[in-house]
Amino acid sequence: MNPEPTLNQKVKKISVDDPSSAKPRDFGNLLDWQQISEWAKEVFLHSVTLRNLSYLYAIQIATYILPLLTFPYLARVLQPEGFGKLAVAQSVAHYLYLVLEFGFPLSATREVAMVRDQTHALRDILKGVWGARLILIAPVSFAAYLVWVFFPSLQGEDELVLGAFLYALGLVLSPIWFFQGLEKMALVAGLEFFIRLFATGSIFLTVRNPSDVAMPLYLHAGSSFLVGVIGILLVFQHVGFTTPALSGGWRWLGKGLSLFFFRTVVSLYTGANVLIVSLLLPNAQVALYAGAEKTVKALIPLWEPFNRLFLPRFSFLLHHNPLSARRLAAKVIFVMLGIGLSTAALLWALAPWLVKVLFGESYSEAIPLIRILALVLPLIALSNFLGIQWMLAQKMDNPFNVIISLAGIFNVIFAWVLIPRFGLIGMAWSVLLAEAWVTLAITGYLWWTRHLPRRSYEV
User: Fold this and answer.
1) Domains of the chain: total
2) Which residues contact 168 (CB under 8 A, 6 or more apart)?
3) Domain that holds residue 74
4) What are phi and psi of 138, to 5 degrees?
């Protein structure tokens, strides 16, 4: 009599590039949840892709979802006026960070992935990236000063502007991009999650009245510095002690320029909207739009782990195994689009309840804003896959940048035209129209050049 096969014998050999191939031949009793959970554990432990994706989601949750837990509290304690000011300061922090990161989470990660086994080359990348960021501190400091002096909503707001600057500086210290390229993110992701969880909880203890409006910025800045310092020590453990090199920094500024340009113009229709509204409408209106945008933007980072994980993966596969790249692409787009459609439908249905719970009755005008902005989620899923993961993996940086640049320009023009006439609804429609342009233009370009995944590499 043949012995009963073990669980491991029932599980097929798991492919790193195709974790979905890890299917048991026969579960026997489909309701044996213990066996199913053991099989799922086997899949996770053997799939580098699934593990890395889970680590990246932990970081995204720590950075974007955990702060969402503080919205109901901050919206009520700070009141619309203070909540609007905080939203503007957070947008300024986003732009300062955007300059300091200079697109390196994409460009440097791609380089690390290509030389992950060459310690000397890894040191050169670190020296160059750190050197570039040292060079960028001066213009970023000057930009923060200009905001403090001239920007209407933050003019003379010393604590808010300084908090925004420190927050941006702390965020850029994190070397998570380096460990992404190595596909060794477990420890850094865990540290980032728990440290930011502590900072989020501290907000409830320290923000007591509208005068504490800057405190969330300082708490998140402190947690970011701590994550960055620990991460850098882990880098030294991997490649040895390394210092920034200004000469290499200038070279890396040149290397990262195209992707920095991409991130900047993207922000014209993703990160600049609160700033645009603050220039045209009072702070109380800014708070309404910021509340709606933050609710939707809490879901937009769902795509970032896919981008960071599959950009280097597609860069490798398209060069070495195009057929595997096409097969993986079909699975990735199916998952991303499914998440986009389901989250959009969920937001549309739950918008009244979310506004009431998160912000209170005084923010009821944010309900139609959330419903309009929710429509961008499936569009972003498509544009992130076809643009960031597929076009950039094939180094189609120039056409991609042109499409994104036009989207940013369109968004600003639409906003300045629609806001005076339709108010906050006009800003929401401006964002939706800009995102629709990006998705249609990328799809059209790839179809015209025969680089859509299903048309690529056809004989």
Assistant:
1) 2
2) 93, 94, 96, 97, 100, 140
3) 48-255
4) -60, -55
